Amino acid sequence: MKEIKIPIEKIKVGDLIKVYPGEKIPVDGVVVEGESTIDESTITGESMPVFKKKGDQVIGSTLNQDGILIFKATKVGKETMLSQIIKLVEEAQASKAPIQRLADIVSSFFVPIVLILAIFTFIYWYFFAKVLISQAVLNMIAVLIVACPCAMGLATPTAIMVATGKAAENGILVKDAESLEILHKVNTIVFDKTGTLTKGKISIIEIIDSATQILSRRESHPDRIVGVPSKAKNLLLPRQKIIQIASSLENHSKHPIAQAIVNKAKEENIEFLLVKKFKNLVGQGVEGEINGKKVYVGKLLNENDELQEAKRFKNEGKTVVYIYEEKIILGAIVIADILKEEAKEVVEQLKNMKIMVYMITGDNKQTALSIGKQAGVDDKNIFYEVLPQEKEEIVKNLKLKFKNCVLAFVGDGINDAPALAACDVGIALSTGSDIAIETASISIVNKNLKTILKAINLSKKTIFTIYTNLFWAFVYNVILIPVAMMGKINPMLASAAMGLSSVSVVTNSLLLKNHFYLKKLKYETKKTEN
Fold it and tell me: Starting from the edge strand earliest in sequence, which strands make up the sheet with 36-39, in order?
């Protein structure tokens, strides 16, 4: 069989494609030869790589990790999953309806009414009051000047300008004013899990020494040690030694889990040991020789070797890597995508604001429920094993399910883009993909979920300021228009009054900057005291 290189655009359905470790899968297809682990996080949101073998589906734009794969192309061009995601984004964006501003509605009625009143003023003073035409014209002009809707026109843009500028200083990038206006109405918020509620990077959270397991078993069963040969007691190693053996072996692998273990060893300044006869067991683990002894790191080799603590972590949906020496279990390393420190507090605060919180993920049920519980999200509000197309459907269904539902979606990946486009307010984290940020209405650039709370607070205060501006602008006109119609104000005074009203609106909008700044200081002081 001849092997040639061609551009992605020339790939056809049925072509056999060879992908080496570290390369991206170009199109969707089915594996026909080879085994490897694939990082599908950009599409499914699953933080852990997925093992692929003959007959399994592969998705375009995902990353091949550690094996050589040959697969048959089944979908190319616009038919690939990535292209479908982009199409969904475009359709969702096109279906969005713009928000009609309150000021526009008021002005549409106000301007014709003022013109009628000005004409009526001229007619009254000239034809009925019998004053000079010049005086009648001056009274009419006074009505027009005093009613000039400058203050009303400035009410919204000045508040939005100040709010968006202050938001940028606090790590909130607002794409359009409409999203800022809608945000204060949000009563339902959906979080993507990976990279949003969690750090999106697998890390070591626990190291289990089998010696501890043996001691606990001896206390329960003094006459026997379950699952571990008696000679193992001479080979038991402390926690640091387990990291050293595992990292020395995994240092020869490029797998994400291997890198997490190696990084842990580097953090603790643990020296790597010399490894001979290294072998990568695709889908299982790695093995080699250290100090003349055969060592293995990977999946559990024997069910009888299962450690109680490791079993508990597995039940919580976490990944457990086992370490063996001469087929005797030494311990285990627990790896997981860690919840962000502020996630639980943010969820709790949102609940206190009477906002329903949901979590959505491509992870399995066990992992999803475990992370959801840590974050404080109710089990009934967790969606798991969700594909990108389904995320958009879930958002749409939630909006239909609840009356007057105003929904915000928070995500960071390509797989979140359709949902970000379909919701009322899309919020993307700056650590996410370009397509997610492009689709979202609001981007959080400081990586902190607490900024979402600040954005909601800013939106509420902004809308309050806009309403206040409109109220005073309207009251000013209601009071001064009759006075001008009665001829009590000349055009010069009307001009001054009109200018003063505009100044008052701008000043009120600028107070928004000080309010948000004081709120920020108050929040940070409270945080420090705690």
Answer: 50-52, 36-39, 63-64
- pLDDT above 90: percentage of residues in the chain: 23
Concatenated DSSP letters for 370-409? HHHHHHT--GGGEE-S--HHHHHHHHHHHHHHSTT--EEE
> Which pLDDT value is given to residue 515?
57
Calculate the CA 65 to chain-centre distance. Answer: 25
Q: Of 118-132, 185-199, 429-443, 470-484, which gets the smallest average pLDDT?
A: 429-443
How far apart are alpha carbons 368 and 46 in whole angstroms? 10
Give the CB-side neighbour count of residue 436, counting CA atoms within 13 A.
26
Which CATH architecture does the domain made up of 173-199+340-454 adopt?
A: 3-Layer(aba) Sandwich (3.40)
Helix or strand (DSSP H, E) at 204: strand 198-209
Locate the domains of the chain by residue range: 8-76, 102-161+457-529, 173-199+340-454, 201-338
Same topology, domains 8-76 and 173-199+340-454? Answer is no
| pTM exceeds 0.85 for this model | no
The count of C-alpha atoms lying within 13 angstroms of the C-alpha of 171, restricted to the half-sphere facing its C-beta, is: 16
- CB 118, CB 487: distance < 8 Å: no
Average pLDDT of the residues of the chain: 80
- C-alpha 123/C-alpha 142 separation (Å) is 14
- Kindly state the tokens that stand for 520: 């920020």
Q: Is 305 a catalytic residue?
A: no
Q: Are strands 16-19 and 69-75 parallel, antiparallel or unpaired?
A: antiparallel
Task: Tell me which CATH code domain 8-76 carries.
Answer: 2.70.150.10
Written as six digits, the tokens of 339 are 């919840």
Annotated active-site residue in 28, 39, 66, 192: 192
CA 361 from centroid of its chain's CA atoms: 11
Q: Measured between alpha carbons, how far apart are the two ends of the chain, in Å?
A: 68
d(CA 470, CA 106): 9
Residue 157 has pLDDT above 50, yes or no: yes
Q: Which helix (H) or strand (E) holds 512?
A: helix 491-529
The CATH code of domain 201-338 reads 3.40.1110.10
CA–CA gap between residue 99 and residue 174 (Å, rounded): 16
Alpha-helical segments (H) within 62-149? 81-94, 102-123, 133-146
Residue 65: helix, strand or coil by DSSP? coil
Query: 202 - beta bridge partners?
Result: 337
Phi-psi region of 499 (alpha: psi -120 to 50; beta: other; left: phi over 0): alpha
- The amino acid at 380: K
Cα(310)–Cα(321) distance, integer angstroms: 9
